[in-house]
Each structure stands twice: as C-alpha cells, then as structure tokens.
Amino acid sequence: MNRIYLDHAATSPIHPEVVTTFSEALGTVYGNPSSIHGTGRAARKALDDARKLLAASIHADDNEIIFTSGGTEADNLAIFGTVSKKDNKHIITTETEHHAVLHACEKLEREGYDVTYLPVGENGRVRAEDVKNALRDDTILVSIMMGNNEVGTIQPIAEIGELLKGTDVTFHTDAVQAFGVLPIDVNLLNVDLLSVSAHKLNGPKGVGFLYQRKGTSLTPLLYGGEQERKRRAGTENVPAISAFAKAVEISLATMEEKTEAYEQYKTIFKAVLDKHSIDYKENGSHSMPHILNLSIPGIEIESFLVNLDLAGISASSGSACSAGSIDPSHVLVAMYGEQAAEIRNSIRFSFGLGLTPEDIEQAAEKTAQISQRLALK
C-alpha cells in the first residue's frame, strides 16, 4: 500500500539534506562548545553559524536566540520565565492556544495568577480589540499563537504587537506551526518572545529556540552551566542545532513554491469532494496554506480516522488522543460551542515534504469514498 502522509502539522519527515547534515555532525562535531581547545572551538563555530542563520530567519540578532529542546520548552520558558521576574499577576491568552501554553497558564492559575482566556469567533480568530479591552494595570504577559495548529487560523499578531508597543506588557507568540510557512520579522510584529520548533519544518525532533528581544526580562527554568548566556543551562545539542539550521535554510529558500503547492493541494482536495457531492465545511479562516480542516456532516471522527488509516491515509483530528479515544478539540469547542457537530466530525489534513498533486487527488478520492460509506450507516 502506498501510504500518503497528511499529518505534517503534527510532525514532519526530515529532509534528506537535513539528515546528511545531522549525521555528518554527529560523527565530526562532537566537542563541547564550552571547551576552549580546538575540538570545542569547532563545535562552538558550528553553534554560532547555526545561531546566526536562525536569527536572520526572523530578522533578529544572534544573541537574542536561546536554543531549547523544542517548542514546549520554549513556550514554558517564555511564560514562567516572564512571570517570575515581576510582581503583577495578570496574563492574557486565548482559548485556542497549544496546550504547551494553556497548561502552563493553568498551573499559574493554581499559584494565584489571574488568566484571561480570550474567545475567538467561528473563524478561529481573536480580535485585537478584545486584547486591548482585556488589558489591566497588572497585566504582565500576553501570549497568543501566530498560526493555529488545528485549523490553521493566522492571528493578527502585528496588530496586537502595535497595540502593546511601548507598554510594560511582555508579548509572546507561539510560532511553532507558522515558522517556515509564513515570513516572520520580529521587528514588524513587535513581539518580545517567539517560540519555534525544528520538527515542524523537516528538522529533527528535540530542538527549537526561543527568541528573546533585547531588554526583555526572563528567568531561566534550568540551572547548571552558563550556556546560552546563562539563560538555558545544559550542553547544546550541536548536531541537532546544525540540522535545524539546515532545515530552516531549505524552508526559507522554498517558502514561495511551497505556499503555491499547498494552495493547489487545497484546491485539488476540495474539487474532488465537490465532484462526489460531499457535503463539507472548511473550519477556520485566514488559514496557513498547509492546513486544511474540514467538517463533514454524517461522520464520526474516530471511525473516520480508522478507515482512512486502513486506506493508507495518515490524517488527524488535530486534537489529543488518549488511550484510544479522541478528546474533544478545545479549538473547535472555542469556535463553535460544546454541543456543536463540528467537534465530532472535523478532520485535519496537513501538507508538506514529499507530496504530489496525484497523492492529494488519491487521498481526496478515498476521503470521499469513506465519507459516503460512513454516512450511509
């Protein structure tokens, strides 16, 4: 069976050139970047070169990049590292954030912080006006993701950043899903902190970074050595970081053609469903090009995903799976309400490396066939 992978928003295959960079670095760049001898200096150069490329990818300075173990650590460092520096206790976020942000905020609530979870419309988008209205004298942090990992909605980050510019409020955005897909300039966005992970853009798992604007206060989460300018202790994973940089280099060079391809894939997919008279609705708006989230009336998501898997299609509900059952998507609940049918019949297809228009057409044909079959039951 020719398996078609349409779950790139969950994780992505490593690009062959990135595999080469990673494996070569594993064998040759084995020194500790903190060592002063030649072997250590070679590792330091590889680390510095990667940092320079990654900083340039978001129009930041080299010393504003903190390497982490991935997006979750970057989000946690941004949130806990910010609030521990100040006395204020109010945080603003949205109901549709990734759990790396939501669960961090829930922990802070248990410790006495007050968190405002802003609602979104049926398009999945928060309004900058709602952020403005939620601001208080004791607001310490605003954390709003750039692009939603389930429905793909792009949030008005630049508008919110302009609103917060010149205030004492720290502005963090989780850009894990958007980085490598959307062009990012931290100066145009006016963000103070920005989280990124390598495995969403054909890099290795277990590595990411947090951008920290100069002058933005941050308390470390980890204590030990003085790596990352004393902001994140632990010997840097130089091979993974070098591979991360290679993945970003490739991603930036191919961003336009990828965007064009992904928009074509969406068109093909929906055209096939239309050809078979499948009733569906696209969830979210202002969406990133690689995510297509569809509500298909008459289906139940668990059986639908099982049938797709048996047909060789790897897709996702976009929500958490635990012990064989799928929890309701908090994103769709926020968009439509707890009793909405979309919570039970929505599926996420996400595109990336290795796909062809023929793959998309074949996947859409199987999706249509399964939809028709399950709708008859």
From TrEMBL:
- UniProt entry tagged with the keyword Lipoprotein: no
The EC number(s) attached to this protein equal 2.8.1.7
Q: Does the keyword Cell membrane apply?
A: no
Domain Aminotransferase class V, first and last residues per copy: 4-362
Q: Record's superkingdom? A: Bacteria
User: Which Pfam families does the entry link to?
Assistant: Aminotran_5
Q: Which InterPro entries match?
A: Aminotrans_V_dom, Aminotrans_V_PyrdxlP_BS, Cysteine_dSase, PyrdxlP-dep_Trfase, PyrdxlP-dep_Trfase_major, PyrdxlP-dep_Trfase_small
Q: Which UniProt keywords apply?
A: Iron, Iron-sulfur, Metal-binding, Pyridoxal phosphate, Transferase
Catalytic activity annotation: (sulfur carrier)-H + L-cysteine = (sulfur carrier)-SH + L-alanine
Tell me the cofactors it needs: pyridoxal 5'-phosphate
The family annotation for this protein states: Belongs to the class-V pyridoxal-phosphate-dependent aminotransferase family. NifS/IscS subfamily.
- What is the name of the protein in this document? cysteine desulfurase
